[in-house]
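Two proteins follow. First one:
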Amino acid sequence: MKTTLFYFLFLFTFSISAQNFEETQQWIMNNAKATNFTTASQQVFYSKSKKLIYFVKVLQLPSGGHTFTTQVFDPKMASSIVINKNKDSDGGHNLTLWFSESTPVYSIDLPMTGPYQGTRLNNKIIESYPLEKGIRRHGIEIYLSSDREHINRVKKAYIHLFQTLGYTVRDGDNMF
C-alpha cells in the first residue's frame, strides 16, 4: 500500500513539474545554439490553425546582421530524432529529425528587417508570411555543432516538444 501511494505521489509530482509547449519552446530557443563561423540559434513555433511546425534557424553574421532559414512541415510526419554519428567540421554533433515518409518541407522568405527588429520572432509574424513551394524530404538537419551531452539534452527537448502537441517522436538512438 505504501509503495502504491509513493508511486502515485511521484507520478503526480512529475506531471506537475513537466514543461508545457511554451516552456520547452523557450528552453530550445535559449539552449539549442551552434557556434562556428556564425552563431545559430533555433526557434520553434506551432500554428494551431495551420497544424504546422515552423523550425527557424537564426544566423548571426560576423557583420552583426541576422538571417533566417525556415523549415515548415506537418508535425504528425515526424517519426524519430537521432544524433548524427559523424562529427561536423567543427568537431561537434548535429541532430536529424526523420519523417515517417517523404514529406513536403516548406520554407518562408523572411526579410532581413521587419517588425521584430532582432532575432526573436513570434507566431503572428511567422504565420503572416506565405509558404514557399514544398520540397519532399525524408528528414531535416538541426545544426548544433555541440558535444554529445548537450546534444542529448536538446534531443530530449525536441521529443518533449512534440509530446506536448500530442505527437510521438522516438529517440532513434535508443530504439532497442
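Second one, unrelated to the first:
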Amino acid sequence: MKKLNSSDAWILQTVAHASAYKPASLQKIISTGDMLNHAIFTSGELQHGFYNLYQLRYIKQDKDFYTLTEFGKKALSQILNKYLAPMEERHEISKKIKASAWSPNEPFPKYDSSLNPMFFTLEEFSRADKKYHKEAGAILKNIKWQIKNRTCLHSLTSYKVADANNQSPPQRPSKR
C-alpha cells in the first residue's frame, strides 16, 4: 500500500463527522467533505481514500453506508474531542495517520474499475454527487431569495436595535 496523502486525511475526517450519529451515505460523505474543505471529492480520490483507510482498518462499509471502525474511533477520539477548526483538525489527523502534506503537483487518483465491487460504482458516485448538488443549489437559491427580499434575521435585528434604544421599530414604506 502506498503512503497516505492529504486527501486520505480529509476523507477520514469527513467519515468521522458524517457518521458521528449513524452510518453515512455516499451523498452525506460528499456534502460533509464539501462543508469541511470547500471542495468536492473526485470519484477516484474518494475510492482510493476509502480503499486505503479500509485496508488500515480506520473505516468500514455496511451496504451503502460508511462509518469509522472501533480502531478508527479510538485513533481519532483525542483529536475530535479538541473541537478544532476543520483545517487544524485535518492537520492533526494527517499527523496521526502519517499522511503526506498536500501538494498542488500531486495528481488526483483516477477511478479504478478493478476496485469496482468495493465501496461504490462510478454510477453510484455520480448519482450521489448530482443529488448533493441539487439539494445544495436549492438551499443557496432560498438563501439568495431571503437576502434579496430582506427577510429572515434582518427585520428581527432592526426591531431589537430600535427597542434597545427606546425607539419605534422601523416602518415599512407604504405601497402606493
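SUMMARY FIELD: Confidence is low (pLDDT under 50) at residues 154-164. Helices lie at 6-18, 26-37, 43-55, 70-80, 86-97, 122-148, 153-164.
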